[in-house]
Write a structure and sequence with these properties.
By secondary structure, this protein is of the alpha/beta class. The chain contains 16 helices and 18 strands. Strand 3 and strand 4 form a beta hairpin. Bound molecules: NADPH dihydro-nicotinamide-adenine-dinucleotide phosphate (NDP).
C-alpha cells in the first residue's frame, strides 16, 4: 500500500491500495460493458452531462486545488488556475460534442458519407506534474466522442483523479463510463497498453516510457497519442522588449518548479544584448517567491520527490550564474538556478524537469534557428522580437508543435497542443483532439 506524500512537508497524506493486473482487467471489463449505452446517448444529452462535470469542477475548485497543491506541492494560486482550466476543458468538449462530424463527398453513382465513430474503451495514462489538468485533456474529448475510459494517474499523485471520478458520477454520467485505476505504471499502465479490449492509449509522460508504450501497443495495433518531454527554446532577439522578455522568462521555466514539459529551459539570447539580458533575468529570478505552497503569495513550491531532486541536482555542475534561496526544514526544495551553457552541454540537451535554465548566446537569426532546432525534442517555444516579419519567419522555421510570440503561454482549451520529433505525436486540446478519439468510417450508398 504506497503512501501518498505532500512534497512540501514530506508528510503522508493518504494511503491507497495498489491495483494490479486483476483490477485493471476488471476496470476494462466495466468500461467495455458501459460502452454500448454511452455511445448511444444522444449528442444533446452527452453534451449536457459533460457540461455538468464542468460546473461541478467549478463548484469544487477550492477542494480540488487544495488536493492538487498538497499532493504535487503546487502553489495554491496556480493550482486554482489549473482547476479553472479543467472546468474550461470540460465546457469546451461539452460544446464540441455535436460539432465534430462527418462529410458528404461527391462521388459517381451514389452518395458517400463519412461518420466519426468512437473507438470503444480508451486507456489514459497521465503523469504527476499536472495530474488533473492532463487527465481532463484526455477524458474530455474521449467522452465527447462516445468512448468509455480507464484512467491511470501517476502513483505519486492519484488523489485528484479519484475525486474527479466521484464528480463524474455526481454529474449523472453512468457507472463504468469513467474508471480510475491506481497502481504502478509498469503493471497497470503496461496492462492497459497490452489489453486487447483497449482500443487506444492516450499517454503523457517521459519520452523513455512513451517509447516503450509505442512498442507494446504494436502487439494489438493499438492507436496511441504520445505527449512526451521537451527542451524548448525561449529565443530573445536584440530588438525585443528586453524588460518584458526578462520579466516573463523565469516563469516560463520555474512555474511548477520546472516540472513542465513546456518549460522554456533553453534561453537563447542574441549576443549583442546577452550581458544586459542576463542582468535583467537574474533580477527577475531573484523575485520569484519560493516557499509554502499554501501561502497565496508563493510562486514556486518544491520538487515532487527526493529522488527527483537528486536527478535535478545532477544537472548543476558549474557555470552557475544565479542560485536562488529555498526554505529550510522539510520538503523537496530546489532553488531557481540559472546556468551559462552551450547547446552541447548536458543541461541543454536533456530534459531537467526542474527549476534550472540554461542561458545560451546566439549570433544572428540563422544561428538562433539552428540552435533552437538542434534537439531531439520539439514541444513548445517562444520568440521575442518587435519585428513581425522575423517573428513569422522564425515561427515557420522552428521544429516545434506549440509556439508563442512575445509571450510564454502554451495551452488553451480551444487550441491544439502536441509535439514534433521525439516530443510525441497526436494533438490534445482544441477540436483536433477529437480526431484522436474517433475513427473515420466511410459509407457509400449506390443510388
Ligand atoms: P513517466 O513517463 O515516468 O510516467 C508517466 C505515466 O506513465 C505515469 O502514470 C506512470 O505511472 C506511467 N508508466 C510508467 N511506466 C509505464 C509503462 N511501462 N507502461 C505504461 N505506463 C507507464 O513520466 P513522469 O510521470 O515522470 O512525468 C514526467 C514526464 O512527463 C516528463 O518527461 C515530461 O516532459 C512529460 N510530460 C509531457 C507533457 C506533454 O504534454 N508533452 C506534459 C507533462 C509531462 P507511475 O508513475 O504510476 O509508475
Amino acid at each position: 500500500m504506497p503512501a501518498v506524500v505532500n512534497p512540501a512537508t514530506e508528510q503522508t497524506i493518504a494511503q491507497l491500495p495498489d491495483a494490479g493486473v486483476e483490477e485493471t482487467d476488471a476496470a476494462v471489463a466495466r468500461a467495455k460493458a458501459a460502452f454500448p449505452a454511452w455511445r448511444a446517448v444522444s449528442p444533446t444529452d452527452r453534451a449536457r452531462l459533460i457540461r455538468r462535470v464542468a460546473t461541478l469542477v467549478e463548484a469544487n475548485v477550492e477542494e480540488l486545488a487544495r488536493i492538487e497543491s498538497q499532493n504535487v506541492g503546487k502553489p495554491i494560486g496556480g493550482a486554482r488556475a489549473e482547476v479553472g482550466m479543467v472546468a474550461q476543458v470540460f465546457h469546451f468538449y461539452a460544446g464540441a460534442v455535436d460539432k465534430h462530424h462527418g462529410q458528404t463527398i461527391p462521388v459517381a453513382g451514389g452518395v458517400d458519407l463519412t461518420f466519426r465513430e468512437p473507438l470503444g474503451v480508451v486507456g489514459l495514462i497521465v503523469p504527476w506534474n499536472f495530474p488533473l489538468n492532463i487527465a481532463s485533456w484526455k477524458v474530455g474529448p474521449a467522452l465527447a466522442c462516445g468512448n468509455t475510459v480507464v484512467l491511470k494517474p501517476a502513483e505519486l499523485t492519484p488523489l485528484s483523479a479519484l475525486r474527479l471520478a466521484e464528480l463524474v458520477l455526481e454529474a449523472g454520467i453512468p457507472e463504468g463510463v469513467v474508471n480510475v485505476v491506481v497502481g504502478p505504471g509498469r503493471v497497470v499502465g503496461q496492462r492497459l497498453v497490452e489489453h486487447a479490449d483497449v482500443a487506444k492509449i492516450g499517454f503523457t509522460g517521459s519520452t523513455e516510457v512513451g517509447r516503450s508504450v509505442m512498442q507494446a501497443a504494436a502487439g494489438t495495433i493499438k492507436r496511441v497519442t504520445l505527449e512526451l518531454g521537451g527542451k524548448s527554446a525561449n529565443v530573445v532577439f536584440a530588438d525585443a522588449d528586453l524588460e518584458q522578455a526578462a520579466a516573463s522568462a523565469p516563469y516560463a521555466v520555474f512555474d511548477n518548479a520546472g516540472q513542465d514539459c513546456c518549460a522554456r529551459s533553453r534561453i537563447l539570447v542574441e549576443r549583442s544584448v546577452y550581458d544586459r539580458f542576463a542582468e535583467l533575468l537574474v533580477d527577475a529570478t531573484r523575485n520569484v517567491k519560493v516557499g509554502d505552497p499554501q501561502d497565496e503569495a508563493t510562486e514556486m513550491g518544491p520538487l515532487i520527490s527526493s529522488q527527483h531532486r537528486e536527478t535535478v541536482s545532477s544537472f548543476v555542475d558549474g557555470n552557475t550564474l544565479f542560485t536562488g534561496a529555498t526554505p529550510s526544514g522539510p520538503g523537496f526544495w530546489f532553488p531557481c538556478t540559472l546556468v551559462e551553457a552551450t547547446n552541447d552541454d548536458r543541461v541543454a540537451r536533456e530534459e531537467v524537469f526542474g527549476p534550472v535554465a540554461a542561458l545560451i548566446p546566439f549570433a544572428d537569426e540563422e544561428d538562433a534557428v539552428r540552435i533552437a532546432n538542434d534537439t531531439p525534442y520539439g514541444l513548445s517555444g517562444s520568440i521575442w522580437t518587435e519585428n513581425g516579419a522575423r517573428a513569422m519567419r522564425v515561427a515557420r522555421a522552428l521544429e516545434t508543435g506549440v509556439l508563442s510570440i512575445n509571450s510564454n503561454a502554451s495551452v488553451r482549451p480551444s487550441t491544439p497542443f502536441g509535439g514534433f520529433k521525439q516530443s510525441g505525436f497526436g494533438r490534445e486540446l482544441g477540436m483536433q483532439a477529437l480526431d484522436g478519439y474517433s475513427e473515420v468510417k466511410n459509407v457509400y450508398m449506390a443510388t
